[in-house]
Amino acid sequence: MAVNHISFSHAFLPITVFLLAVISSKTADAAINSPFCSRVDPQRKQLCNTVVNGAPTREVALANVLNAVKKETAPVAQEIANLPNTLPGSVGKEVKGLLREDCNRNLDSFNYNIARILEILENGATFDDNFLTWLNAMATSLHGCIDVLEMNELKSPQVQKYVDIATDYSTVSFCIVGARNITKM
């Protein structure tokens, strides 16, 4: 599992979100409706509620969310893979090469982590430290691409869109894991 160029703040944000979700679960049964999940964009929150609705367990709810993020990010992934070819001619070959390498590796890592989590869920998941490592890796695996862009003062709506989608779903995933149950979702 390779997760590259993760800054201190990037790496620990999902852990913080998870810890907050665990704390919130002491006072609320409904993970998606907990105050710590209210930071998710309302439209995304509605989508996640729809995806999670009717799931009998947290494990099924999480599998539903991960399958949804996979489906929604698929079209954007192709745009990111083509990102180096869309940059202005003034951007050097070295930077384009870095982006091509980092973005594609990050995308592979993101998809691999989702596949690994789904496999764990299928085999009877327990939300232990090992499981959270995979979830944390999924949540942070796209930041290498962002870092290369920022270091070179470049912006990409495609990358930002992908990261926004992944961040929203990651936040919801951590909230599900931190909930005591999902009966009121």
Automatic annotation (TrEMBL):
Keywords: Signal. Residues 1-30 form the signal peptide. InterPro entries: Invertase/methylesterase_inhib. The keyword Signal applies. It comes from the Eukaryota. This is OLC1v1028359C1.
